[in-house]
Amino acid sequence: MPDLLDSLPTLEALFTPSPESVASSIKKFQAEIKRGLNGENSSIAMHPSYVSRPTGREVGEFVALDMGGSNVRVTVVVLAGDGVISVKQHETLRLSRIDGEAADLFDPIAAFIGSVLEEGRNYDLGFIFAFPTDQAGVNRGRLTKWTKEFAFRGVEGNDVSELLEQSIVRQTGTIPELKSVSVTALANDTVGVLVTGAYSDARCDMGLIVATGTNMAVAVDRTLVSRPLPPTVGNPDEMLFNMECGNFDGVVSIQTPYDRILDAESDSQGQLLEKMISGRYLGEIVRLVVAGMISEGRGFSGWNGLNSVFRVPYGFTTEHLSDIAHDETPELAGVGMLLNRLGVGAVGIHERSVFKKTCQLVAGRSARMVAMSIAATTLYIDPLLESQHVVAVDGSLFRGYPGYQEGVQAGLQEMLGDSAAERALVSYIRDGSGIGAAIIAAVAGAGSS
Ligand code: BGC
After folding, report:
1. Does the structural domain 50-201+430-442 have CATH classification 3.20.20.70?
2. Whether the predicted model's global pTM rises above the 0.90 cut
3. Distance CA 35, CA 430 (A)
């Protein structure tokens, strides 16, 4: 019978693309950015967001709605100018479902906004909608397709600000606080985190989310784009683009068989880079590796018993993966206990350590692919790395997975070289995307000083 340990070098090779193939992904990524910017068909759509970076002098009080995963957040944000931001209120609603009709999504969200606000005040609301959206203005945009396995009907192809406004109107009778809310801005979460970074640091020109989903935004000088672009609110010479690079498909040659199974079994095919990086998928990739080893008779035997999470698609989650990484004891006692709780039964040290290594390989590849996206984007806007760039990052995976940030940093050093990597500083900003909605509402005209 093949030994489980013998499988490790194979897994290592599968989940560690060579530096040459990463370099070739960087080239393809840049070619896709170019096509996207030119309005050609591309797996990196580059949606204009109709807004530039803020000056840092915007002031006022705004409401931010952040909808990007199962947690919806409403934040009341006060911008004081000089890059100073304070949060007056911050509430979270956990969505009980990720499919249904449009009203099943927007009605509870509108009611939740009403429960946070005071009656008799006017509110400008910035709406972060963290899905691919083809914008038609600073507060208008149609969902092009659901990602992250969301599947509410009647939203794709429709203006999401309008759907939110309709839900707000439907409920003003019973929730009078909603009467005075206007949706002033609509933006992707990556654009939100970019503007939050830029509000206090003018060098910030990229935004990145590494959470349930993944994506980047970038500030582009109009002179770099050959086609006419719509006007920008704010600085007319610049446009922020929601890249939608989670959909990048130049990674087919480095996909493992597990990535291909994951994509084939997903509710929506595509989003190939996102499926290698984001929190929605990492646990499932590990589960598919375990399932593969079991069916080849290589090990993990009995791990898919009746009460085991490994039996169920998406039963093993990225949070579990993070718990595994936290256990640094030589005996991996925590891993053993967790597996027990997950219905696996008693597991020897041998299997525990191969399993932990598998989790590390999958998470490590995710961090390296994030570095690939940052390196490619930075080199696109500044091929000789002549300026200092800052990438503002938000997201639970980036923040919570032990060693993730170091993995991204190591990847940048590998791809750009040690000193050039310092030209792309990665800076974590908690709740950056939601706060950004308020800043965009301010740039959109409600409160510049
Ligand atoms: C969406 C992006 C979003 C990202 C991070 C992806 O699934 O397509 O619009 O920015 O998740 O939330």
Report:
1. no
2. yes
3. 32
